[in-house]
Amino acid sequence: MDYDILILGGDIIGCAIAYELSKYNLNIALIEKDYDIADDIALINTEIIYNGIETDDSITSKLEYEGNIMMDKITSKFNIPFKRMGSLMIAKTKEEEIKLDKIYKRAVERGIKDVYLIQGMSVFDIEPKLGENVTKAIYSKNTGVICPYDLALAYGEIAFDNHVNFKLEEEVLEIKKSLKGFNVITNKNKFTCKIVINTIPGENYNIYKDRKDRIVDKNKCKKKRYLKYFLYNKTYNNFYSNMIFNLSDDEDNMYAIPTVSGKTIYGLNTDKDMDNTKLINKASSLLGNLNKDDVNTFYRSSFYCDPIVIDDSCIDTGYIKIKGKHYGIVTMTPAIAQKVCETVVGNLNCKLKKDFIDKRREYYRFKELSNEERQNIIELDNRYGKIICVCEKITEGEIIDAISRPLGARTVEGIKRRTGAAFGKCKGSQCLNKIVSILARETNKKVTEIVKDSKKSKIVPNRIKEFDSM
Ligand SMILES: Cc1cc2nc3c(=O)[nH]c(=O)nc-3n(C[C@H](O)[C@H](O)[C@H](O)COP(=O)(O)OP(=O)(O)OC[C@H]3O[C@@H](n4cnc5c(N)ncnc54)[C@H](O)[C@@H]3O)c2cc1C
């Protein structure tokens, strides 16, 4: 056998499973088709850590609640930004109040703690800046915001340091059952393994399609919905001190949340097509009048709410499939990874490694350091004294570290996500060419070979003159 375990897909769930299983004396590889791990996480650097009250599906709710509880320990161990922050789910009409009452009753039945139903003036004691038309709210103390990309990278980097073999730019084409395990065929290789953990979305391989006892996704989200949101250049405490979710009668649910660095995000979950001007107008009912010139970037994404299923109905043969796409996957990830790990360990005769390193290699966020700390680092490495992204104050040292770390960045997007470069007001017009040059230099490539994120996304398509550098 080439491997004990093959994990298919290297987004946050795949990386978290790789991390949990790398604690054991197993031979593991992860196969990801993109240049980078966690490439499909939304670009904006904040995601909500839910607490399981908002979802209709009880298994998904349980995974969210368990993941939420695990988040403090994991983020402090990995040294990544995570902020516990209260949230208010608000109602303004009788219909919205009825919805809210149902959600609260369900939360109590599910045993979710730190959740309170409040009405009248008590709402304004918690959040004085809310409009007077708010009549009732569910106050959750245990929600939060996190940098999901940092979490995924930390999982991946630690798994890498504990000998998980990451196979990037390799696409899984077929999975076949063999006598003692599986053959996994990719565009580059043919692997054998005992256990397959498939995190690739969809039922895209023939394996076990006909097996009658497999769990079928009956409750898949059928209605097409979108998440439209924008990043606003004012700090969140200009508006609120808690996250705000507004359930609306017309099924357009709005929210206002801070990024981990304190900026403001407005989001709308809707089934309607809506242009950006309408979106800003809609946001004014939650955030007051907004100036469109202060909007940093608009984003649009599909909104997924399939129930999440860890399908281990074929574990007797060694196959586990994670099913469903959901808006709260980041929250659920620690719980999903732990459950998958328990199932695998229960099925293989494996032991904990004695030399497991449960620590992410250190890195510096230059703009968050004191002048004295900066001076000390520059004395050790003067590349930390050269600012590349002026808006976000990102240094050459940080960019080089992002490239040379375990599973280092190979694309411009990878640098942006790891360091925060090019996310400022000028959106990279001052620094993108410098980032491309550094990437080319550090990876021994030509600038014309550097891509944004995928093979077809070259930044510099061709040379017009035979210069050696840009
Ligand atoms: C706009 C938006 C906002 C979100 N907000 C939140 C939030 O506030 N809170 C929260 O908890 N979560 C949130 N999420 C959810 C979360 O970020 C994503 O669902 C999560 O990143 C998906 O992770 P996954 O492991 O399920 O990977 P998936 O995206 O399902 O992908 C699996 C991986 O498999 C790879 N792959 C696919 N096909 C192949 C193949 N043939 N061979 C090899 N590899 C392959 C893909 O490249 C990918 O890396 C949000 C998502 C979006 C889009």
From TrEMBL:
Coiled coil: none annotated. It holds the Pfam family DAO. Its EC number is 1.1.3.15. SUPFAM superfamilies: FAD/NAD(P)-binding domain. The keyword Oxidoreductase applies. GO terms for molecular function: (S)-2-hydroxy-acid oxidase activity. The keyword Lipid metabolism does not apply. Keywords: Oxidoreductase. It comes from the Bacteria. CDD domains: GlpA-like_Fer2_BFD-like. Residues 387-441 form the BFD-like [2Fe-2S]-binding domain. Residues 4-272 form the FAD dependent oxidoreductase domain. This is L-2-hydroxyglutarate oxidase LhgO.
